[in-house]
Amino acid sequence: MRDFLKNPVGVVGLTLLIIVLGAALLGPWLAPYDPQLFHARSRLQGPSADFWLGTDQYGRDLLSRVLHGAPSTVFFGLGATILGVGVGSVIGVIAGVAGGTIDSIIMRVLDGFLAMPELLFTLLIVTFLGGGTTQAMLAVAVTFAPGMARIARSSVLSVRTREYVLAAIARGESGTWIVGREVLPNALGPIIVEATIRVSFAIMIGATLGFLGLGAQPPSTEWGLMIAEARQFMFRNPWCVAVPGVAIAITAMGFNLFGDALRDAFDPKRSRS
Amino acid sequence: MSPAERPVLDVRAYGLAYDTPQGTIEALQSVSLTIRPGETHALVGESGSGKSTLAWAIMRYLPPNARDLGGEILLAGQDLLGLSPTQMDAVRGRRIAMVFQDPSASLNPAMRLGDQIAEVLMRHRGMTRIQALAEAEAALTRTGIARPADMMRRYPHEASGGEKQRVGIASAFACNPELIIFDEPTTALDILTAQQILDLFVRLREETGVAALYISHDLGLVARIADKVSVIHQGRIVESGAVHEVFRAPKDAYTRQLMAAVPRPDDRIAVDDPAPAAALLQVDGVSVRYGNSSWISRVLGRAPEPFYGARDVSFQVQPGELLGLVGASGSGKSTMAQVLSGLRDFQGKVHFGGRDFTERRGFDRAYRRDVQIVFQHPDASLNPRQTIGTILSRPLRLYGLCPGDKVELRVRELLEMVLLPPDFAHRYPHELSGGQKQRVAIARAFAAEPKLVICDEVTAALDVSVQAAVARLLTDLQRQSGAACLFITHDLNLIRQLAHRIAVMQHGRVVDTFAVADAASPARHSYTQALLNAMPVPDEFKGVTAA
To answer: What's the maximum distance between 2 C-alpha atoms anywhere in chain A?
Structure first.
């Protein structure tokens, strides 16, 4: 952990994450106004003493809306990732441990899924399931699973041929023990790291879906949706697009940098000398 | 001083430190070393002694956290410490060349071998591509490689380890450098190939008169090829001088310790010959086939030719005996270890303790308890996320060898048995040195109270001095427990110290089996004789003790 805090990338990532998670947990209480409250006299204004980040086309306070949108956006990312990573890792571990024909079949099916562009695949699933936050989250999770399965599998495969696993097999240990005690604890590192980086992708895909009108529905304060709604007023007040846009960027960057630093910290070649 | 007298390389009181998160580590302290024209200077030390760091310091190719602590590195009188990176680029390859340990890792896998030599010539001697290719072929011919023109067009994966190392040597000699640094050039090779590479080195050195810095951990080898030797220990040169003087009368205690650790065939440390009895293990016509075709290639009717890792192998081990299984890499000796520890499918019959096994699944828990294996790499054979205590207690619990409340006590006993402090039980593998880890792996094998322990190259990854200690420990444990041992190795000198009988494998077959006392007999197979004569121990080493 000390190595982690010495890494400037890690410190920046962690700081951004704390800000974002703070907003996600406390946002609704910190917001100065009701996010749905119209201020008809001050529409599409820039930052001022009353409205710190300006207002949108209905005169709603952008700061309040971004703060209220934080929980849904961040937890969307986390939820989709946890679901996708969980399902994907289980599939990957099964393929890696089983090997042989089972492995071949699972991986060929997943290759089929991977052949489709991620966003297109998500759109396809959303069309099946219908719009809405939960559906969008499921769609993102489904798109994540094949990639995660590949990573989990390669991680398991690299550990599976280690001599301590061979030693356990030679001892006559049960399959459950070998997988649970010898293989998994050593294969988890790459999976956790990849999961952190994927949170940022999930948030961006979620925002994209919101922007396309397939995720959260108005008057939700989801960030992608905020950008979509404000799009036509972009030239009259750039703030109403920039504020949620920057919020998405900060969140994505926070998770990304954090994941990068985590990967470095897990890498024994870098952390131990 | 006339130019002929002037040293090619003169390192004067050079020091180097690494800045790490745990603090500054002084890797080299006031190192001085002189190499005159045409001289071969050997730098001998164990892993972590700083010998490779010195090589990279001379090449001025150091990681960003390395820091010079003063001193001078003079190449023909010119201080390399003051050179800019661009000036250094002109020195590297042109005036100082380097030959690396692992030929497969030091060649670019996506480039033809000929192009890799030609690249050096085009870069440093300003040749055109056609000239360079012709010169590269000439350089390759000088290394005595068979069919050099053909070799020029091959990619690294199409050449053997020995051929690749010849290419590495050819490109090092290509620009007629003043100094060549050899960083353990034969360690990754088989003994017979290593022997040829050494002969090549000696011949090229005589032809070109190049000065060489030869880095090695092998004192026996150094004694045969070097003029001068420096012994390096913990970043300091503890002893330096002409080879025959240093080895005839070593002054420093560490040098003596290293020399005493070199395995000498006549210095037996084996347990007494076991009384003749029925064989404990009898391997009967065992074959292992690699590359089983996948179902898809079977469907397509494109099954590849089967490749045999072991073919019709037969040998036996008596109770309490130590059988040495030797051979070059790829000869099938590790395959046999995997078969006997139930890690690989086989055809044939294994007879053990009155029972017959004809397939891998037949090995039950009773067999697996009686036959334990110790692997080559101590870093890889212990689970990094378990404490030593957990690792050692596992066989006890798995085979129900001792009641739950006694396990901790038994783990302490096991640690004491392999001469480690009992409080190591709470440590993790990465807190231990390589030798200590190998002791833990050996303790784990003996914890099961086995009848047969398979040791797969257990000393190959260890330093010489640690190697000797581990070998002694193993025979001590054998003496105490009465277990038989199948000791797989490529070190003919070591195995003649340890074994009662030796089986020699070549290309997956056992070509010779003999009692150690008969090793010198003219009746030995020609391959056995070649192996036995490849690495003689110099006379100076006899009778040296670590005083």
So the answer is: 78
